[in-house]
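Re: duplicated header lines in exported structure tokens

Our pipeline writes sequence and tokens for each protein into one text file. With two proteins the header for the second block appears twice in some exports. Here is an export where it did not happen, for reference. First protein block:
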Amino acid sequence: MFNFTALPPLSLYVHIPWCVRKCPYCDFNSHTADDRLPEKEYLTSLFSDLEHDLPSVWGRPIQSIFIGGGTPSLFSVEAMDELLAGLRMRLPIEPMAEITLEANPGAIETGKFAEFYSAGINRLSIGCQSFNDQYLQQLGRIHGKQDAIRAAEMAHAAGFENFNLDLMFGLPGQTPQTAMEDIKQAIALSPSHISHYQLTIEPNTLFHHSPPLLPDDESKWAMQEQCEDILTEAGFGHYEISAHAKQGKQCQHNLNYWQFGDYLGIGAGAHAKITSAATQDITRSWKLKHPAQFLSASEGMHVSGTSVLNRQDAAFEFMMNALRLKEGFAKSLFTERAGLPIHQISDALQQAEQGKLINHDFSSIVPTQHGWHFLNDLIALFLEESA
């Protein structure tokens, strides 16, 4: 069915599902925290979950770790230190592995970043979303502009040379001018990475049930283009649809997703993708979603479901991820990571090239600027071929 000659790089995602408050736009698996976070109990469940997964990746080194949520920075430094120590005991982690912690400006105590850094976290992703107090209030955020600025300053003071600032555009009432002000403020804080993405209204969110009035498409397009120009001028390379980084500071964990690498996922609602050389297949799995279910699961029972990809699934999922990268990918990567010959997608490639959505030669496939602007249309060609 597949032909894997080498296994892809392996990453680890750890999900911590609690937040101070659920934001109205958020469709992630996050839950409002009670007065007491069950840190000890959750760590026990995380390690039990991981130990059940270990046979599927035995001996494979971990290239990167991403601790996401929720708001994982709500966990105490002691709990984070215990988490990292427990991971190191159970997994071979590369000495220079990127270890990222998501943090929200409204959930950080003075000095906590420095202690996280001492525990082994070497990259932060700070959820600013905006530096405008009016927009932050409309987004349901628990922090203000000064909290966001202070969080970035604390990251520098703690020793973090590598951190990301998350920013949204297309917010209720936002103009191209105020969107550019957000970008300029973010750049002034000297992060190594900026994620800049459009607010979208997702199902099962408060905004979906009570939609806010958003800027029109013309205004959102102007925001995107003008902000991208400012980021480029400031030395941030636009390497993925919503990701901009200083040279050498691309997010290694996310690159592994976009290049169809493997990843373990532990914690409530976490997902995994694992390639097996022995069985020559790709298996996806996902864990029990609600924290209470995850905490109460007996050993080895944290998995909620699994599926094995067929050839069409693998081809489509590879292209859906890899086409997000501005520099595209080598054809050999498709063969290596999807385990398939490139002719599996030859018809869709021809249609995409005729539509000027990609540049396609003997060695590489690169989305054009037009293809990037109409990425959903480009990806749909590969969904149609796999149907």
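Second protein block, exported in the same file:
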Amino acid sequence: MRSLHDNLGIPAEILLQKTGAVFPQTIPSIKWDLFPLKEMSKRGWIKPLGKLKDSAEESMRSFINDCCPGAETIKACFRENSGNRLNSKTDLYALNAWCMRVMSLTYKKPLLKKFNQESFTPGSLTEIAKLSFFESGPLLAQEFLEKHGIYLIIERNLPKTYLDGAAFVLDDATPVVGLTLRYDRVDNFWFCLLHELAHIILHLGKNNHRLFVDDMDVRTPEDKKKKNIEKEADTLAMESLIPDEIWTSSTAKKNPTRKNVLELSEELRVHPACIAGRIRFERNNFKLLSRFIGSGKIRKLFTA
């Protein structure tokens, strides 16, 4: 219809069958049919009007308008990733669709508390880490964050996104953490959550950083000349779970037996999975302490 309007001069109101109708502004950089339309339709994110490919732009514009009601243009929904933890095989259209889906879910449940950057500190992350000690800890963490004006949204990742989590800010400066639970493990949940929250404390809103998306399987490169913001977030997340001064002299670190892991867990009041996860990561041995990592314990909490 846009082609008929541009080339033959047929008025938009005739083509769209609506008085005074005009076509939305075109955005040449967006190729609408590259979005994962079939999967998005399957999940109920979009309602195709006719064949998926033929109605790609109209379906996606409707989806984006629902996700970003305050945005002046569609471009406002496409944020540049501020970090460097993105799998090179990532489908950026699928990634953007997931981010916008998370954004849309925030508008369905307004928070009662406005976020205050000064009151949310590294000490807050330590408080959150201690919630891991409880079986319902992930839900308690979600409630804790809502009371501090921060969204925690759980949304399964789309194919070809290789995504664990993201942190971004809405137009009104409200922080959002989105987690995919790609790996349904207790240790992975708490590290990913605290990593994204560390971004909120250390980086979001500073130096034009608006969005971080993270594949935790991607190791951050060492570059002494360049500030590594992903490394900073990792460090604060680990420190929140297990303070370095305790970890360096810990018996569990030196001799990772069941008894030593449980004793450190009791001392710190954090879940043993968080200790086992750090041991496995540092030793690069992911068969070690596998009974402690809490496989299959997280997703069911958010789907109950």
